[in-house]
Predict the 3D structure of the following.
Amino acid sequence: METLRLLPKSIKIEPNPFGISHQRNQIFLKFVAFLLLIGLAYRLIIADSNVSPVPDVRTSPESLPADPSDLTAVTQAPVSVDSPVNITTIASQNVSTKCDIFIGNWVPDPSGPVYTNVSCRHIQDHQNCLKNGRPDANYLLWRWQPRDCDLPRFNPEKFLDKMRNKWLAFIGDSISRNHVQSLICILSQVEEVEEIYHDKEYRSKIWRFLSHNFTLSVIWSPFLVKAETFENMNGVSFSDIQLHLDKLDHDWTDQYINFDYVIISGGKWFLKTSIFHENNTVTGCHYCQGKNNLTELGYLYSYRKALQLVLNFVAEPKHKAQVLFRTTTPDHFENGEWNSGGFCNRTMPFKESEGEMKNVDVSMRDIELEEFHKTAQEGSNSNIGLLDTTSMSLLRPDGHPGPYRYPNPFDGVKNKELNQIQNDCLHWCLPGPIDSWNDLMVELMLNREMYR
């Protein structure tokens, strides 16, 4: 800048600018150079002023306190001006409202769940981790944060109001039961529910929120298609499962006309040894082990067949129910499976780049997405939506009962590492990560047009 201040003094302007030719050219060239230097300096100053001196600030999962009582130490990261804080803000700014609420991360939430294992009486014993002696509680202090937008908190009052005179049914296996218990625990903080039916195994149930005339069901149908299963009380098979891949399970189809909303899912049961029937003929099996010279078709064959039948049924125009198809739930067994010493003893979520699905889960999820999109594209007014909980669940290896599916599993055990206690690394503690499934579910049910 000192050079620029001195430069005008070195330029001598002649009284007659139209005098000698070479002097005029020199003056003109010097004047042009002066203007160029001034312009360059201006551009450098302006460019420097647009660089922010403030670095990005992020809240990492490690910032969560080890002691749950020290929650005041947890603070949320400031909201970026480049990221909309919620869906309403996006719409008001005339920005696309499309947001993938299934991709994101778990962030610290010191407020914790809206219910406890004491304030909710509907938690199954196997999922009541704190009552069963789980010593840590940090797994309760996280919430799901989509990458590109904010996910509204579950509002039980608003949900019950929207569900007045409606019927919501969950159809599937024990994960569906786990999910519906989570929903009931949240809603029961506003209105207590009354159980009005259960089957003899207590696997299928119906509840009613009387003041809203809202009916809620869970229907046990682990294969979704007709199946004959042969198991003892511990879930151990004593004969091969007979799967009818061209016939739906009437336990749920016969009731389907009553439903306004449906959450439906399949999954892990297809991994069990089973014999396949189609057109009243045995066509093959999964995990045949050389029995009766049957053709080994595998679980992916039966799963695809079952999903095609299910999705075609729920997509029929005559059906009024709005359907959410929930994707597969990955387990987190390490160093073995449920029956071979596998365990899950992590106490922190994975970050987005850390979780890795097993090949079984990847294959099942691929089939789910293929069949869902095929069905959704075929129907111009499709009533099916996708509830993709797989990615968010993959990141929560800390949210399972593990050994705490039974009370105080290590009582009297001197060496825990040598003890062969059966772990549950598939289902979810209540309260726990599965509560956030309801945030997604409600957002999709009440604002489904935004995610089509």
Notes: The first strand starts at residue 104 and ends at 108. The chain has two domains: 2-49, 97-451. The chain is about 25% helix and 15% strand. Confidence is low (pLDDT under 50) at residues 1-29, 38-96.
